[in-house]
Amino acid sequence: MTTADxxxxxxDIDQVLxxxxxxxxxxxxxxxxxxDFLRNQAKILVIGAGGLGCEILANLALTGxxxxxxxxxxxxxxxxxxxxxLFRQKDxxxxxxxxxxxxxMKRVPGVKVxxxxxxxxxxxxxxxxxxxxxxxxxxSVEARRWMSATLVNLVDPENPESLKPLIDGGTxxxxxxxxxxxxxxxxxxxxSLDMLNKPTAFPICTIANTPRLPEHCIEWASVLExxxxxxxxxxxTDDPEHIGWLYTVAAARAKxxxxxxxxxxxxxxVVKNIIPAIASTNAIIAASCCNEAFKIATSSAAYLNNYxxxxxxxxxxxYTFEHEKRDDxxxxxxxSLELSISSAFTVEQLIELLVEKQDVQIKKPSLSxxxxxxxxxxxxxxxxxxxxxxxxxxxxxxxxxxxxxVTSTSLPFSLSxxxxxx
Amino acid sequence: MSAxxxxxxxxxxxxxDSKTRRYDRQLRLWAASGQSALENSRLLVISGSATSTSxxxxxxxxxxxxxxxxxxxxxxxxxAGNNFFLEGESSIGKSRAxxxxxxxxxxxxxxxxxxxxxxxxxxxDTNPGYLASYTxxxxxxxxxxxxxxxxxxxxTDDTLPMLVVVNSAGFLGEFFIQFHEHTIxxxxxxxxxxxxxxxxxxxxxEYAASLDFTSMDPTDHSHVPYVVILxxxxxxxxxxxxxxxxxTTAEKKLFKExxxxxxxxxxxxxxxxxxAQAYRCWTETRVPSDIAALFQDPQLSxxxxxxxxxxxxxxxxxxxxxxxxxxxxxxxxxPDMKANTTSYIHxxxxxxxxxxxxxxxxxxxxxxxxDDALIDSFVKNAHGLKVxxxxxxxxxxADPASLAAAAAASPKATATHLALSALAAVGSPxxxxxxxxxxxxxxxxxxVELPDEFSDAVGEIARAPSADLPNTAAFLGGLVAQEVIKMxxxxxxxxxxxCVVDLVETWTGMV
Lengths: 422, 511
Description:
The structure holds two protein chains of two kinds. Chain A is an alpha/beta fold. Chain A has three domains: about 1-195 and about 275-320, Rossmann fold (3-Layer(aba) Sandwich); about 205-270, Orthogonal Bundle (Arc Repressor Mutant, subunit A), CATH 1.10.10.520; about 335-420, CATH 3.10.290.20. Chain A is about 35% helix and about 20% strand. The longest helix of chain A is centred in the last third of the chain and has 20 residues, at about 280-300. Chain A is globular. By secondary structure, chain B is α/β, with parallel strands linked by helices. Chain B has four domains: about 10-180 and about 470-510, Rossmann fold (3-Layer(aba) Sandwich); about 200-280, no CATH class; about 290-390, no CATH class; about 400-465, no CATH class. Chain B has 25 helices and ten strands. Chain B has an eight-stranded mixed sheet, sandwiched between helices. A two-stranded antiparallel sheet of chain B has the order 7-8. Chain B is elongated, with a radius of gyration of 29 Å. The chains are: A alpha/beta, B alpha/beta. Chain B: One of its GO terms (molecular function) is NEDD8 activating enzyme activity. Chain B: Regulatory subunit of the dimeric UBA3-ULA1 E1 enzyme.
């Protein structure tokens, strides 16, 4: 592959690879060794070929990574084209990973990009073990939690190669963040779950009985009216006909209640939970992620320790800090989470609490003690067998100070709770 | 579009066109008004470097009207290696401007791109009027003498384009926007406007006073909006306390207990909301201090028919606030709160009606005709107005005392700025750290030492004095594009000094 390296191809980058800077680790071996590792040996995985992913792939290719893999399960939509700059109108409907990989290989000679059009959960530990580094450019919290937990689980203390640095980026409008996670060493994604904004949830009684906002009318259309009228037909929020139906129903309800402001755009925004996104913010965050990848792969400069937060709405404000590891993190902490609940709490209420609690947020949790099953979401037989426990008090099933193990099929880890009663 | 109009058209007609769908994720940030400003803008970018094309990419994608890349250079081997908007080896030897424009224009059919292979020096010598047709000029790592000529020329008249100066070397970079004056109505301020509970307008007061809490239906009772509860509770309190609001901690506690005592059932959340918001009763609604400061703006003392509409609006706002109740015009935006539909919509209507009345009062203070949509926007966003006054590029480096003050206030960012200024001043392709340090020292007043952090910054500059690193280019490209969007749309708040970037430790700072 080095045949594609015409003379002075890396003239700019070589300036920082030929010489250390004042803050470079003394272990940095300037010169050919580091260039050979970067250009001929390093293997890097990019999760997501969307807004951040397109930028990440381009930056990695230009900085000299030549063996890049990319995973994305999405296809290209017209609303991607205002920022996902490897895609054109003609690509709409095609898999993002494939189109992005082809574009990079055509534009940056000698770089091999291997796409996978599918889910990260399709891949096993051996797959992830082949990479030196992983960069995530995702918009899904669930996928990030899965990736972070998977890389933490991969760490084998006997084998230093099993520790895969994870660089994670995220954006929303003019704001974004980039962070470096060294699994088991620094705080992981799960450690910072409580930093996420709480998703706006409207109480079902407001939606059904006392709507005040246009959003309430839209939720009524999508949560209550769709299943009532359309039966088992699955709602596809990418289908304009479905959005059109929701919009019409929501607008009619809004009129009935004298509520203003139901529009097509708002309907789509509410049902798809759309986050505003622009090329410039993605560029900043992706550049930051790739710069960390470059520094980690080459040791040419110290890397971010460990969190960079940017707010671009008022001037350029950023904050770089060390996010601390949580001892009771279910993924990397090792200690159980202390949970104090009322002695009147039922199992069902405990499950609700686990779904909503900021630092837990486990959808559809299954609960067990070291000796018995409290409630299992699947398989159906076990769900049925344990269902009667839902209405029982937790205290009847778990002693004071007792351990409860919480698992969920969506997450590759279990959370250990130590229960006490108020 | 109002709800009643929306209902009369079919869903198919409401479905956005393909352009709106393409721009959906950004229209949610700057709306059609911002988009239209972008589409009417014309950008001139000096050089087709990796950083320049990175900036442009982020402005072509959202749809600026026109861009020109001004660059007489041909693509070198190193350009072909570090610039995504060149096609590797096959671009070598071709015009850098033409290659970059060809590949950038592919990103958006709605944008006009032009390559100009003349030199800036030639334009400055023979046809400086060339620059006047642009909205904004961006220059990356421009020769210091040409930059001085360019910035001086563009500073002569405030109708000439703004200038964005971007400089970078290796992991370090900075940029600066040269502009005379920048006024912002839609700052997208995150502070909510006052609900004026402490100065309830007559219709709100009468409504709150008319409610009979004791004989009310229990369901209605638990759905009275907290705003109404507080207006009533405050009126009752004032009647019993000689017209005074709760003042001491004890009184405030008593007031909150009074609100809780109005409950007829323990789980009435609207009264809990009222208690939590009770501070609004004794926090007097006044003109926010940053808005009051705008009334001292020199533009107001010289206001005339040719003054920009913004200052006519600001003048009217000032006059409005001189009358009771000495507040900004009421905002019609009501946050969500525990309430049933009828009581919420009724309250919303009260606020809307009063906001319209106050807007009419405001309009009467205007002395020139101004478009209604602009008046609406101004009144709606009155609590977030901004006026920024910029400086000429280079003014800071020409002022040793200010530099010394900056070095004391923010040593890390100033050290990096000084190192980049020194690189420009030394003008050698491979300057030594010693030469750079001497050049930086010369910018400071005699006897003032360089910040301790300077050695870190200067070492990086000496290490990679001419490196346009792809990641640094992309990072600066994103930051600069964000600021350019804010300048062009006149939405959100742009920077008004140097923004400095260090990608070794990954931080940004302001000088």
